[in-house]
Design a protein that fits this description.
The complex is a heterotetramer, with two copies of chain A and two copies of chain B. By secondary structure, chain A is an alpha+beta fold. In chain A, 36% of the residues lie in helices and 36% in strands. In chain A, the strands form two sheets. In chain A, strands 3, 4, 6, 8 and 9 form a five-stranded antiparallel sheet that branches. In chain A, helix 2 runs antiparallel to helix 3 (102-119) and helix 3 crosses helix 4. Chain B is α+β, with helices and mostly antiparallel strands. Chain B has three helices and five strands. The chains are: A alpha+beta, B alpha+beta. Chains in contact: A-B, A-C, C-D. The interface between A and C is large, with 37 and 37 residues. Strand 2 of chain A pairs antiparallel with strand 2 (28-35) of chain C, so a sheet runs across the interface.
């Protein structure tokens, strides 16, 4: 399990290859990449700036990975989250999970993303054509997290 | 008692602080009490900490609710609901 | 939407980058990579050979992608499936889905994999330490597909 | 009527054919009837097509069940349950 918070971009192909080739018992790698969209809530986005709470961020993400590993039979996981100022089409976040079989890797990957969205201390500020604004938390993200609380696995 | 307080995102901008050391009166022992204490500092503080906005708190890097106890040496952080990913 | 059946390996990073950068309205890319494991059912695997039914394979995969696009609000999808003889740690299959938001991309990607496993005419033969054998279809794969039949979305 | 029949995987190996053209008697008009017809060719054919093994069928590249009708010019394929991915 690993967690990286970084300003610089990441090489998606390289990261997934490292995860995949770490063991010949891996049969499945599921990944999620989030990227900056050019329009949000109807306004053109010029830049997106990510702020975070160092130390707490790392702790929160490690705790989420540990919880995923407790719930599902997965082999490894990786979270890379960028901070600083990004442009549309820039990669923001990578979550990748390896396992012997696909079902558990899919669920663990989605679980990590849903928890990251609601429990890791990141905040987004958009510079739009009409000025700057903080991105509001979404009720749909809370709902996505709550799903996992209500199921055994 | 002495604590460190950190502010993030919208809240940091509103109070114009990112971090400060505070020597709290001895009767301020919970997050709620600390929020009330901070809300007396002026209008922008009152707007944030009077309970009408969602302000999340963490103590020593762990999310807590407003009933959580504060003890000397703690690092308390205030921030809006998170929006990463 | 695209489907490729090929003997040669694929460049995972390149394929995902192309999908991701196709539109600045894409906020999420979910991918699944399957690879050959070194042990199956307790036996060491030397090689895995994939046979398929040309034309029908392409039709089946295109139909699965179309069904996913009908069910979920996704932007694009890609399936690459290799055939021929592979070694442990070789990539077998890539399914990748792009969309504005993560939830629909996750579900569409898992749906495509579950249907691919049960509806696309591929067959696997393992060369193990004890000789060759055809891989048996799994009841768990049928169950994974049936889940999707019993839900609206 | 003339049809083309394809065999894949385990079935291809068992019957030692990958593809053949067959001129069917006119009363063979469904997948079930074709399976019964093929099962008369010998032991290895009987073992596969007597209904004790799962043999899937496709007509013109679409999965069908055993009640499906066969018409002249069709491409009929027989194969075991699929195991890709």
């Amino acid at each position: 399990m690993s967690v990286k918070i970084q300003i610089e971009d990441f090489d998606l192909g390289l990261e997934l290859s490292k995860l995949r080739l770490a063991s010949p018992s891996i049969g499945a790698v599921v990944s999620f990449v989030g990227q900056v969209r050019d329009v949000n809530d109807g306004d053109t986005i010029n830049t997106l700036t990510l702020e975070h709470y160092p130390i707490m961020t790392e702790k929160a993400l490690v705790a989420i990975e540990s919880e995923a590993k407790t719930r599902w039979n997965i082999i490894d996981s990786l979270i890379i989250h960028r901070v600083g100022t990004l442009q549309p089409c820039d990669q923001i976040v990578l979550v990748a999970v390896s396992g012997a079989h696909r079902g558990e890797a899919f669920h663990a990957c989605e679980f990590i993303m849903d928890y990251l969205k609601t429990s890791a201390p990141f905040w987004k500020k958009e510079a739009t054509e009409h000025g700057e604004r903080w991105v509001e938390a979404k009720l749909s993200d809370d709902a996505a997290k709550t799903r996992w609380l209500n199921q055994l696995k | 008692m002495n604590i460190k307080v950190l502010y993030f995102a919208r809240i940091k901008e509103a109070v114009n602080y990112s971090t400060e050391d505070i020597d709290l009166p001895s009767d301020i022992t919970t997050v709620t009490a600390l929020k009330n204490y901070l809300s007396l500092r002026g209008d922008n503080w009152a707007n944030l900490f009077n309970g009408k906005q969602v302000v999340r708190a963490a103590i020593n890097h762990a999310l807590v609710d407003d009933l959580a106890a504060i003890k000397t040496g703690d690092e308390v952080a205030f921030f809006p609901p998170v929006t990463g990913g």
